[in-house]
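Proteins fold reproducibly. Next comes an illustrative record:
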Amino acid sequence: MGVFDLLLTETVWRLSGPEGIHLDIGANIGYTAGIMASRCKTGSVICFEPSPKLHSWLAGNIASMAATMPNISLEIKKFGLSDCAGSAVLTFDPMERNIGKGSIVEAESHSGNTVEIRLRRLDDVLSDIEKVQLAKIDVEGHELKVLRGADSILSEKRIVHIVFESHEPFPNPLTDFLNEKGYRIFGMRRTLARPELAPPDEDRLEKWETRNLIATADEAGLVDRFRQKGWLALSGI
């Protein structure tokens, strides 16, 4: 599938496996899941994608990965995550060409192209799982509700690293929530030698780039994974 967003790609590559559970929340067609899977030896990747428009593409890409990575568990969950279970409306801007750009809205406030989806809480889905190595969250502004639905998991630090889109300046309600759970927040920056951790309020992004932040329950482990020079993901994709 090539490389999309080198800084995010490298960050996910460095924070993934070789063992453990990895969550791709807002999996789209499976790009991030593919990075996670390429780093796993005996681990697992769980993809959460509620949009029916993407299910066939995602399933095809996951099937291709499974054929070449037989020791990894790859799973697709065809529902969304939020702070409560139930149903919601996923709406698509009719002028947006990217079909992955769906947003969850209140049923009575939607306009444009819509589809009804199921929602569950991550606390319920992962109730019997002790540890998640990495969760990537890209859900078009629904990130805080996803994390509120993982209140118990986060309080117990059962997710080691979280990479997430941040749509507001730092600090914001999303980063405040993670801080309250004991997570340390970092930004990322590009250098010629390698990606570097940065203050979460640093702004060196181009206008078209999306801000991604890292929340970690293991600061020393995070720093160690960013220590090696090079853009390592380019050799593994």
